Amino acid sequence: MRTRVGIVGAGPAGLVLSLLLAERGIDSMIVETRSRAAIEETIRAGVLEQGTVDLLLDHGVGARALAEGAKHDGVELRFGGQGHRIDFAGLTGRSIWLYPQHEVLKDLIAARLKAGAVIRFGASDVSLRDVASDAPVISFVDTGGSPVDLRCDVIAGCDGSAGISRHSIPDAGRVDFFRAYPFGWFGILVEAPRSAPELVYAHSERGFALISTRTPEVQRMYFQCDPEENADDWSDDRIWEELQTRVAGDGFRLTEGRIFQRGVLPMRSYVCEPMRYGRLFLAGDVAHTVPPTGAKGLNLAVADVVLLTDVLERYFTSGSSELFDDYGPTAARRVWRAQHFSWWMTSMLHTAPDASPFDVRRQIGELESVTSSTAGSAYLAEAYTGWPFARLGPRGG
Ligand code: RFL
Ligand code: PHB
Fold first, then answer.
1. CB atoms within 10 A of CB 386
2. Alpha-carbon distance 393 to 397, whole Å?
3. CB count, 10 Å around CB of 262?
4. Which of 96, 123, 189, 219 could form an SS bridge with 140, CB 3.0 to 4.6 Å?
5. What is the pLDDT of residue 397?
């Protein structure tokens, strides 16, 4: 089998890349280990930057996000028992959208398959060969048990944080920047109406809590916990007591309901450099992971592939690989800004296990500065709603 761009992984990065390439007349094939059903059921991100929604709309896959998602013009930071709104629309003229990642993926998969794209779901033993040559190969075993070699002009590694593609960059030429946080997030899905009109990011002496939403009937909530916590050890009553305590103050109470999904996730920051090696380009979580406090991961994956599309279009239209060298350093600038923002939100809002009373008071001082200063609030609003996409080649210069 042959394709111009072999894409490893049908997550947001891989699917958006295949969509953008197709619109520029560049064929691609996706190899994915999971089934379509598994992808469409996995609960992950909720927040889309305005630029991400605009891109989905511009490319014909945003109608449902617009109709069924919710536009939010700000978020609330709660500390010292009081809420403080950050007015995204007023500060930046931009907004965010609450629309679940698995719904984005349903929309993308349906659109790609309708357009005749090849997505090989359920592949196993996926490996990459000859990535430094002019003829790289993705090898895998298909659902029928047959080995397949997919010959490509270039490979896009879009296989997420546990992906294999970055390991094709030799250890000697790869730097892994990594930071683990001494806490995790306990996440729940709840059948209940919204407790607040916008997302609530709460700082408290007992630790962080986040009140988010999925639909008018289903809410998503998280609270900081030990990363080794077993979610099944918690009774529903204990979960609600913890959440209510962390957001308490000025009469605010969460509307409780049936908890129908729960889990604990680790918090880490990771960047792999370089993001390109030979004919292998990394995009999305396989190249960088951020703690979810800044709601940046999916949005960064989209920004990577917007850039990568420019690089590959130049290559396939003119035969020039001159932009290959620009991809990694250009993508990395946004990645490191997002790393900083995600780390900053995380450190400002969470209580480290060894936090002293000084640390907690200092965080409150920081939150007061951010919420009472237009400049401080504007920085948060600009970063949260997302920076403009970087472009390369004729569209960007
Ligand atoms: P994905 O989504 O992990 O997709 C990678 C795909 O590759 C497949 N795969 C392989 N395929 C072939 N061969 C292999 N060897 C393979 N190994 C893996 C996988 O099965 C999968 O289908 O990576 P991608 O495309 O880079 O997208 C990244 C985003 O999914 C991620 O950054 C976000 O979910 C992060 N995130 C959030 N991002 C936001 O922008 N806004 C948010 O509000 C937000 N909230 C979140 C989040 C992530 C969370 N979790 C669970 C980590 C909230 C949570 C709780
Ligand atoms: C979510 O709704 O899952 C969500 C929202 C905001 C975040 C992270 C996750 O910062």
1. 26
2. 5
3. 15
4. 123
5. 45
Tokens of 155: 């490979």
CA dist 59 to 24, 27, 297, 316, 355, Å? 11, 16, 21, 21, 47
pLDDT of residue 351: 96
Q: How far is the CA of 8 from the centre of ligand 1 (A)?
A: 13
| Rounded-to-integer distance, Cα 219 and Cα 213, Å | 4
**Which of 35, 36, 43, 44 best tests ligand 1's pocket when mutated (most atoms within 8 Å of CB)?**
44
**Probe residue for ligand 2, chosen from 49, 199, 208, 380 as the CB with the greatest number of ligand atoms within 8 Å:** 199
The answer to whether the beta carbons of residues 27 and 21 sit under 8 Å apart is yes
Q: pLDDT by residue (tens digit) across 338-380?
A: 999 999 999 999 999 999 999 999 999 999 999 999 999 999 9
Q: CA-to-CA distance for 231 and 209, rounded, in angstroms?
A: 16
**Cα(120) to centroid(ligand 2), Å:** 30
The larger pLDDT score, comparing residue 43 to residue 22, is at 22
Quick one: pLDDT at residue 206? 94
Which residue is associated with the tokens 């130049």?
A: 314
Read off the pLDDT band of 395 (50, 70, 90). low
Instruction: Decide if pLDDT at 242 tops 60.
Output: yes
List the structure tokens of 307: 């850039």
- The rounded distance, in Å, linking the Cα atoms of 238 and 240 is 5
Q: What is the pTM of this model?
A: 0.97
Nearest to 312 by CA among 335, 283, 284, 337: 283
